[in-house]
Amino acid sequence: MTQPRRAPLVTKVRAVSDVAAHMRQIELVGPELRRLRCRPGAHVVVHTPDRRVYSLWRHDPGAASMTVRIALHDAGGPGCTWARAVAVGDRVTVEPPRSKITLDGTARYHLFIGDETGAVPLLAMRAALGREAETYGIFETTTPGNEVPDFAAFTPFPWVHRGAAPAAGSRVLLRAVQDLQLPAHPGTAYIAGESDTCRLLQRHLVEQRGWPRRSVLLQPQWAPGRPGFGAGTRD
Ligand SMILES: Cc1cc2nc3c(=O)[nH]c(=O)nc-3n(C[C@H](O)[C@H](O)[C@H](O)COP(=O)(O)OP(=O)(O)OC[C@H]3O[C@@H](n4cnc5c(N)ncnc54)[C@H](O)[C@@H]3O)c2cc1C
Predict the structure, then answer these.
(1) Domains of the chain, with CATH numbers?
(2) What would the pLDDT profile of 170-203 be if each residue is shown by its tens digit?
């Protein structure tokens, strides 16, 4: 039977592990994952059963598998609750992948900036570029134990730590980006994470460093007081 184009996919949990103090990695498998095509940085809506959006850390069509990494944040919510409880063998419905940002094939170099949630799509995008690409990056989380581990083949980007300082509109990450040594000419920046922080960093690159706005690609992923961020059917 032919499936409607955006029909949800039925998967099963193959593996669950903790990759950081507050980040759980979940591998899903299902025959339909073999046929999917997705761009680096793509995300899926997971029915937890509430709809929640998570980026693909890895998609392996050969193994009919996809892997997500989910931040276990203090505010909690259906996504967090699901990730804490999920077990091998559980059935999980996901919607087919979509992309908001992806790699710019014309970039002179690539700059990746984000918090721990943004690190998931951004490090997957960097991995897709390969080791020879000219890349820069900086990430932020609460403590060293919450840094998101990178793919083994890559030298990790530096992380800064906000401790108990607010993640929203993060001054810690802004200062780190202000201090970043970059080539004199603009490249393409990919910024992902808390919504106000994304806009603060975009403003810095455009207004203080003179980057063209079109060279700064944003993926806001969450915001205080906004449950189910980005999961609307029209997003
Ligand atoms: C395109 C896209 C890609 C994303 N990729 C990832 C990913 O790969 N990994 C990932 O972990 N998240 C990712 N997110 C973010 C994730 O969808 C949200 O954090 C989501 O709100 C989590 O759902 P929840 O049910 O746990 O909390 P919700 O019920 O949605 O939110 C409850 C409250 O928790 C707070 N909150 C939500 N998220 C956070 C957070 N991260 N830190 C602190 N407080 C928070 C807010 O105040 C919110 O009002 C992505 C979002 C988008 C739009």
Answers:
(1) 9-94 (2.40.30.10), 110-222 (3.40.50.80)
(2) 999 999 999 999 999 999 999 999 999 999 999 9
- The angle formed by the CA atoms of residues 235, 204 and 191, to the nearest 5 degrees, is 35
Q: Return left, alpha or beta for 193; rule: phi > 0 is left, psi -120 to 50 is alpha, else beta.
A: left
ipTM: 0.99
**How far apart are the CA of 84 and the centre of ligand 1, in A?**
14
The rounded mean pLDDT for the chain is: 95
First to last CA, the chain: 28
In the numeric block, the tokens 């919510």 are attached to 77
Kindly give the distance from the C-alpha atom of residue 158 to the centroid of ligand 1, in angstroms, as a whole number: 23
Q: Are 163 and 191 within 8 A, CB to CB?
A: no
Q: Separation of 14 CA from ligand 1 center, angstroms?
A: 23
pLDDT, tens digit, 9 for 90 and up, residues 114-152: 999 999 999 999 999 999 999 999 999 999 999 999 999
Q: Which band of pLDDT confidence, cut at 50, 70 and 90, is reported for residue 233?
A: low
